[in-house]
Amino acid sequence: MTARYAVVGNPVGHSLSPRIHAAFAAAEGQDMRYDKLEPSVAGFEDAVAAFFSAGGSGLNVTVPFKEDAWRWVDAHDAAAAAAGAVNTILVRGGRTRGCNTDGIGLVRDIKVNLGWTLAGARTAILGAGGATRGIVKALQQSGVADLTVANRTRSKAELLGGEFGVGALGLDEIGGGWDVVVNATSAGLNGVGPLVAPQAAAGARCYDLLYAVDGRTPFCRWAAECGAWSVSDGLGMLVEQAAAAFRLWRGVTPQTAPVLRALRETAR
Ligand code: NAP
């Protein structure tokens, strides 16, 4: 029987996940379909319960439901437990398990796809929201140095810094000398530029969790203008976190490079 998966979010119309998982399934010969679910902001539990009651096998979870998913599942993996957020749900022995593959996805994109060194790299994360919670542990485990979270609202950085044992600053205090800077804010079109000094990005490898198929997000453009050593958007992380979810669901590790290449080609 064809196994059913979906991504649940609101809005979810723009999601590239169905395309990514369809490509993995075709390449790996997996009999599965992958849809989009867009419940109302208050309708997460009903939609997800109905999906699994109807025989669904697994879900990806995106904005704004990652914390709702954390509360809804029966059990967590270590990454989801640390993050307080779930981006992947699977069913084992009739129980739901919430996982978080964002950190694995980021680290794999940085180390394997981009070839940047994390061990010993002085690393700053901009932002202290759900995405930061999902990536801090994986960055710590990859051996980065002086890991510091900098946030517009400093008190949120301090809270997170205390919880994870990392440094905490305001966005306007981060100065320079970083090897790696990760933008995990949702600053959007205005970017973080007005708040972060240009020397923060100068000479650093700068990674934006936001993505654009042409790679040119506002943060990437800003970092390049500030003299970054190298810049990348988060499309590779999106593909790698999807691959980690696929492995949890299907027990096979899909090739990510052809899928990432195909997504980039749509921008040409
Ligand atoms: P969130 O929980 O809403 O947190 C938003 C963060 O952005 C907060 O730290 C907030 O600071 C900061 N912020 C918002 N507007 C800002 C501005 N104008 N200037 C400076 N800081 C600003 O969001 P999230 O869940 O962490 O997600 C963050 C981003 O990561 C989203 O855009 C999401 O799409 C992306 N993401 C990408 C992937 C991927 O696979 N590539 C995976 C996960 C998430 P305050 O605390 O001061 O409000």
Overall description:
It is built from 10 helices and 12 strands. The chain has 268 residues and is an alpha/beta fold. It has 2 domains: 125 residues, Rossmann fold; 131 residues, NAD(P)-binding Rossmann-like Domain (Rossmann fold), CATH 3.40.50.720. A 6-stranded mixed β-sheet has the order 2-1-3-5-6-4, sandwiched between helices. Strand 8, helix 7 and strand 9 form a beta-alpha-beta unit. Helix 1 crosses helix 9, helix 5 packs across helix 6 and helix 5 packs across helix 9. The chain is globular, with a radius of gyration of 18 Å. The mean pLDDT is 95. Bound molecules: NADP nicotinamide-adenine-dinucleotide phosphate.
Fill in the keyword field for this structure:
6-stranded mixed beta sheet; alpha/beta; binds NADP nicotinamide-adenine-dinucleotide phosphate; Rossmann fold; 10 helices; 2 domains; 268 residues; 6-stranded parallel beta sheet
